[in-house]
Amino acid sequence: MGRLSRRAFALAALSTLMSGADAGAAPARRPRAGTEMRAVWLATVTNRDWPSRTGMSAAQQSAELLAHLDTAARRRLNTVILQVRPTADALWPSPHEPWSQYLTGTQGRDPGWDPLGTAVAEAHARGLELHAWFNPLRVAVHADPSRLAASHPARRHPEWVVAYGGKLYYNPGLPEVRAFVQDAMLDAVAKYPVDAVHFDDYFYPYPVAGQTFDDDEAYDTHGGAFASRADWRRDNIDRLVRDTAARIRSVRPGTRFGISPFGVWRNAATDPRGSDTRALQSYDDVYADTRKWVRENWIDYICPQLYWHIGNSSADYAKLVPWWAEVARGSGTQLYVGEALYKAGDPAQPARWQDPAELSRHLAFARDFPEVGGHAFFAAREMEVDAHGAMARVVADHYQQPAMPPR
Questions:
Q1: Domain boundaries 3-262+366-387, CATH class
Q2: What pTM was computed for the model?
Q3: Half-sphere exposure of 31 (CA within 13 A, CB side)
Q4: How far apart, in whole angstroms, are the C-alpha atoms of residue 155 and residue 165?
Q5: What's phi and psi for 387, nearest 5 deg?
């Protein structure tokens, strides 16, 4: 189905879902035009959202997946961001990497169906875009290479792997690693009409006190042109992002490339261009120069994870939205906002998250910034249950009418 005809079909499909949507408070005062991002992340790592457990039959897994797609459509969302490569593995038959353990419980075991192929077809049938979410560098959420499938590339190339913080990672300082992970990810793009490639916030690992990411040999070999190891590491991630963008355009023109980084680039106390925050800094701590990627228009969209409430003392949602809006202004990179649905009603969270209206207030606040083209919600499990009613409130206040995803 062509791009225009599929978009027309999608709008018609969304319109038919209006009678089954959530009831609640009155719609927002100033309805947005008919195009905005309304997305949900569907995480597979550690069976967070789907499959809810390992070892289910193919029919059970498929039914659970379709239920998540139905929920997204019923909430009048238009995009599902499905994690298809959670730990250097695959949710499709890949010639590069083993089947994900989160399907069967055993890495490399064929689940008996094609989850990504099914997800793309069934999402499109419901008028939803399907963004294929890849974690480019995480190999395992444990530190024991012997637990990986015997055929795993990390076992065939142990020199590619760094153990850090109780986990295993590919070393992005090696050109052969960057080339391989692109090959592995782009296999899915070549095989399936995904609407976008999506990276999350994991580049170099988040800092662990008292531990060192051992990339000495790679730095000695490849880092001579750089003033510091930090500059070299940022360049490695820049190359991964820039090269991935170019290869997506080559493999499947029209497929978008988006990244959902940690919500703080740098604090203003560190860099006057930074935000009025006191938080971890993606530029310094995971070597991700997210501001550059937007300003240079290397990516089609950025969706910073602004997982803080309005008024947070260290990272205030109401300060970060205007900061990101200014970064995106005139760049050609679209801006969406990542929302912490998972925090709504969690008794471990601050008092503001106990109010079911907190997320709705986020959308109302962001509506005043024309650069904000929509929102993505983490994550599907909470959207399915919505025990606190926060998502129902968002739908009632802001999603009374269907909307097409931006292109």
A1: alpha beta
A2: 0.92
A3: 12
A4: 19
A5: -60, -30
